[in-house]
Amino acid sequence: xxxxxxxxxxxxxxxxxxxxxxxxxxxxxxxxxxxxxxxxxxxxxxxxxxxxxxxxxxxxxxxxxxxxxxxxxxxxxxxxxxxxxxxxxxxxxxxxxxxxxxxxxxxxxxxxxxxxxxxxxxxxxxxxxxxxxxxxxxxxxxxxxxxxxxxxxxxxxxxxxxxxxxxxxxxxxxxxxxxxxxxxxxxxxxxxxxxxxxxxxxxxxxxxxxxxxxxxxxxxxxxxxxxxxxxxxxxxxxxxxxxxxxxxxxxxxxxxxxxxxxxxxxxxxxxxxxxxxxxxxxx
Length: 283
Hints:
The chain has twelve helices and eleven strands. 34% of the residues are buried. Helices cover 42% and strands 21% of the residues. The longest helix has 16 residues, at 18-33. By secondary structure, the protein is α/β, with parallel strands linked by helices. The strands form three sheets. Strands 5-4-3-6-9-11-10 form a seven-stranded mixed sheet, with helices on both faces. Strands 1-2 form a two-stranded antiparallel sheet. The chain starts with a helix and ends with a strand.
């Protein structure tokens, strides 16, 4: 296995940092043999099968094109769950995991009903259902392809979630909404003008429908979801957003205008304003 590790490092050293390469190695060998990094040290003298060696070569070749390793392996870890991912859904991000952990730690009681808007892979809904086993969790998306992935992830992780198709920008056209105590959304919030600053592995491979908001109206999803929530959140219900760090205070104003009584911005581990919580107060 030592020769294989040397091969991976040699092939990728001009494209990625040592830390990134170590992360690739960890993910590759977990996918191949469910090995931890400790296993790689303790079992370094083991040999790969010819099929495993061929698979490693294929993975490395695709990594060199900037294809995300999560898509190559077909899986990603999120809040202790192993999720299926493919180019129909965004790869779950650490800041989204931080959002889920914030929700879990903030709730004094288990909400009876939870709604995840724009669920993608289902990662937020699944993370919350895992923590709030007694909650009725629903999740919607406009993409049928994403819903296929989300349903499979619920099945794999044995978590009961209602997934359904709906366009939140035209939410009045869907008749199946009901009152809920907690709404969460990680909507598209990257502007097209930001695209030039982004890495190729994101812009060339991840679904643009889930990533980008229009330059002339970057907050349209937040306004619509805030308006939706002002109708369907219960008294003292809570809305959580993941946000573009550039627009935090504008989203705060949107929530206050929609009737939210208390609004809080939270920074992620990088010190960026990436999450917002609003408490609905019906008057």
